[in-house]
Amino acid sequence: MMPQKNKIPRKYHPKGFEILYEDRDIIVGNKAPGFLTVKALWNKDQTVHSALNEYVRKGNSKSRKCVYVVHRLDQDTSGVMIFAKTPQAQDFLKDHWKDTIKIYYAVVHGRMAKKSGTISSYLVEDDEYMMHSTSDGENGKLAHTEYEVMKETQKFSLVKINLLTGRKNQIRVHLADEGHPVVGDPKYGKSSKPKRLALHSYSISFIHPFSQERLTFEAPVPEYFQRLVGPQ
Which residues are CB-contacts of 185 (< 8 A; sequence separation ≥ 6)? Predict the structure, then answer.
């Protein structure tokens, strides 16, 4: 399936979201770090969602076209993500989300004793909007994070992650629970010098809502990660 040719003027291209693929049902892109996926209490307008709405309206202020959220990335996480262009596509992607394969890369502090495995816990959110692991299965949501250490230095490790569930802040909490928080994560880790969160959504593989084909898209690991651990 080939993407449609993009004839929309550059000034309407979404800020913070490099489009990798587009057809009548979906938009797939590479989100830049620092951009919210959807509105928050402190920022209701400058989001990838609102930028994509402007993009599909092609500058027509009267247009009611919009895109539909399928999943989210944390504000400081970069990488590949999907938006739907119709409610039907959104429903299909959400209904088949268990068949979607999501691979992330993270740079964490220190060297992990166990070089691969699956971290599992129930996650619950507190009044400060912080997520915590808990043994309380009634109030928490079960989360599974599969990981493999790909490279190590004296200070950092590059970790490949297969996100088996998609809870809020899941990767960041689970790695912090192991004693190896993500570099640049002041919320769950250390207040450190690195400028950005070293967490990136590298690839996503999913069933297309119309063609039923499995599509896979990748967003290259940021050069910043190489400055921390060297090239792979």
Answer: 172, 176, 197, 199
